[in-house]
Model the fold of this input.
Amino acid sequence: MSFLSIRNLSVRLKKGPPLLRRVSLDVQAGEVRGLVGESGAGKSMIGKAVLGILPPSVEITGGEILLDGTDLLRLPPKDRRRRIGASCALIPQDPLTALNPSHRIGPQITDRLVDILGWPRSAAEARARDLLAEVQIPEPDRVLRAYPHELSGGMRQRILIASAFAAEPKLIVADEPTTALDVTVQKQILKLIAGMQARHGTALLFVTHDLGVVSKVCQNLSVLYSGMVVEDSAVTDFFAAPRHPYSRALLAATPKYTDPAAGLTPVPDEVIAAVRAEVAAFDAGGIA
Amino acid sequence: MALLRLLAIRLLTTLVTLAGVAVIVFFVIRVVPGNPIAMMLPPGATEDDIARLSALYGLDQPLLTQFGIWVAGVLQGDFGTSITTRQPVLDLVLGRLPATLELAIMALVMAVILGGAAALTGTRFRGGRTEGAIDVANGMALSVPDFLWGLVLILLFGVLMPVFHISGRVSPALDLPFTTDFYLFESLLRLRFDLWADIVAHMVLPALALAIPLAAIIGQLLKQSLKETMNLDYVTLARTKGYGETRVILREALRNAALPTLTLVGVQFTFLIGGTVIIERLFSYEGLGNMAIDAVINRDLPLIQGIVLLFALIFTVVNLIVDLLYAVLNPRLRHA
Ligand SMILES: Nc1ncnc2c1ncn2[C@@H]1O[C@H](COP(=O)(O)OP(=O)(O)OP(=O)(O)O)[C@@H](O)[C@H]1O
Ligand SMILES: [Mg+2]
Done:
């Protein structure tokens, strides 16, 4: 059974246009699923819905989010929060804004363990030290006592990764975890996440623009356009033969690492028109 | 290190400020009409009497000479003699300072508690009716000045429902065992809760009148700041860890949101201290402000000078404390 199963999830701006249109996707235990699509397609919105952090300006109009078989949307808020906190975690996009500037690093890794999961403080601190070693941070004791502003962006992203893995979650949502980083650091961080995921057997919902990254770290992927899943495939199948015309165009628009200059065709207008028509037909057909 | 430098710079600017205030107050109160000696003497005093008394207080000297004598005295800790009471200005002023400090600090504490509670409640229930009600209350509190709140409070809790005292600092019938003028503080130290309760019952209304406008400012500003902070990434990340709304506000947002409010509270607190002048008068509270008004009415020049200098000193000290607090609360400055 999938650990995460999103069924027909619809989200819209309160009294406004839909942002997610009957989205369905599954993430098996230990699987890495990529979530791709252009900017504004709704990738982050899916991650936020799973983690219970949708902005107050939007509302869920239908569907289910099954976490280990339980529909999160039917749980009372407190139970939902606790369940998400205990089994899911987020690796955010921007490490510079995702750490609280007035708390030291240590408590920002151990807080969930101590406050939510009831670990003894000493055990949580030992765990934090081990995690920092695992994400290859030198002098963990100094770093645990440091404030975020004393550390570089790459260091902070390593800390956020350590913090995400702290409670051995079953599922991690990584929302473009390398976009805000220096190109030289991006690769290291990507390798680090992939390595940690494999070692801990954590399922990963990996939001990205970059199909090249998807081909390296994901087993399956969902392609999103305007809040609609237009393709859900195994990564090997997708790169061999994408099914949806929009996917094909997206793939053609991705620079090849082997030959960066070649094959850079933007998504053609007629493909955009066709997928827009698909979305319009969906909206006309009544909303879930 | 950074704190020491801040202190040194502040000490220097404080001295310059005080010197400036000394010059201004000295000459301004001598330019406005009104002869202190004539006010002292009974009607029918001769020109001769006036001249003799003027000479006694040095008021017949040229202005610059008078200023020189005063400054020389101040530098040695002698602020002159009050014309009306014939007591040393320093003793008079220091005798009243504790009353005003206690009143201002109680008002500040009330303002922080009321404003903080309004901001936290408004943030917790943002976007709903509760927040709307808090905004309306804040707006009302802000649009009425402190002395009008004083009158309203006197009418409500002094006349209609007389639960608090509306005049004085302590009931005159009570025997006061105090050795300092910090009555509120000393009564606590001596465990004389009966006296303490009486003093508090006298202070509640004037302190509240001073506190209400400041509470509204704190409430509005802190709520605004909290709401912005609640949208930041680190707050969102904390939510995913399983924390509820209230804990997220208190643990993640409050400290960062309080920093910008703090500076403004410092500035507003100096206004509050200025407000004690009228409020003390209104409640016949025997503090510096009340004394200042008497001094102005009587043209008691040395006393006015002393009080103004002391107020200026209080203002600069308050600003210094705010800066230090800001540095302590903000890790970025602490390590700079
Ligand atoms: N807080 C919000 N309030 C209202 N609408 C929002 C909010 N956040 C995002 N949206 C809208 O929801 C849609 C989906 O946004 P989302 O952030 O999920 O896109 P995305 O696929 O993650 O894009 P990107 O690649 O730029 O991160 C967009 O049209 C966006 O304008
Ligand atoms: Mg996004």
Residues 91 and 174 of chain A are 5 Å apart (CA to CA). The pocket of adenosine-5'-triphosphate (ligand 1) is lined by residues A 13, 19, 37, 39-45, 55, 57-58 (CB under 6 Å). The mean pLDDT of chain A is 91.
